[in-house]
Design goal:
- Helix content is 36%, strand content 28%.
- The protein is an alpha+beta fold.
- Strands 1, 2, 3, 4, 5, 6, 7 and 8 form an 8-stranded mixed β-sheet that branches.
- A hairpin with a 5-residue loop joins strand 2 and strand 3.
- The longest helix is centred in the first third of the chain and has 22 residues.
């Protein structure tokens, strides 16, 4: 497995810079934290091939105390097949979901994401996994992200594309489409099938 310790270090430096800048008492401290941010951006640019300035702009929207972002994902089953959506951005498939919005509770966030991306109405019934994105085989990314997976009950609706998705479908475990690996892994989808088959499984984490 590829060694992504450099990514973890860069994320930590970026978090230190963001938090430090939020609580800095004077301009000299802010300059030092800006330097730490620039070092983190240079590390990430060297590891990904991106331009350092592009990484700095990616960091820029963050403010205040740095914490992980929350990515919610839904496992919705029909006839033992799992609901997936095709992303317009890369043409690949993933479980419906995305970043949780400020002000939403987790169940509202995931139910809305499913409806917006697939056209289906669901009810969140059980949280089955909370994963640190860094500990799973996803491509490197600038922010530290926690991924929250919910089993959701299908209530109704019809499949439809959206601004973010170009197609919608249900797939068996043995016939998964090409996955958007920045969003989901094969093992994570397989784990959703395990929870679907065995409701007594405890929630997974890390």
């Amino acid at each position: 497995m590829e060694d992504f310790r450099w990514l973890h270090w860069a994320q930590q430096l970026q978090a230190v810079a963001q938090t430090g800048d939020a609580y800095a008492k004077n301009e000299f401290d802010r300059q030092r934290y800006d330097l730490v941010r620039d070092i983190a951006a240079a590390m990430m640019a060297a590891g990904t091939g991106a331009e350092p300035q592009a990484i700095i702009e990616l960091f820029a929207p963050g403010g205040g105390y740095a914490t992980p972002r929350i990515d919610v994902r839904a496992a919705v089953f029909r006839d033992d097949r799992i609901l997936m959506v095709q992303e317009r951005s890369d043409g690949l498939w993933t479980l419906p979901g995305g970043y949780a919005d400020v002000g939403d509770c987790p169940s509202v966030a995931i139910e809305r994401e499913v409806h917006e991306e697939s056209g289906f109405t669901v009810r969140a019934s059980r949280m089955v996994a909370l994963f640190d994105r860094n500990r799973h085989p996803h491509p490197p990314f600038g922010y530290h992200i926690w991924k929250v997976f919910f089993l959701c009950e299908l209530l109704g609706g019809e499949p439809r594309a959206s601004v973010e998705t170009s197609d919608v479908g249900f797939f068996s475990e043995s016939e998964l489409p090409p996955l958007s690996k920045g969003r989901i892994s094969v093992r994570q989808v397989q784990h959703m099938f395990e929870h679907h088959r065995n409701p007594q499984l405890p929630a997974s984490f890390d």
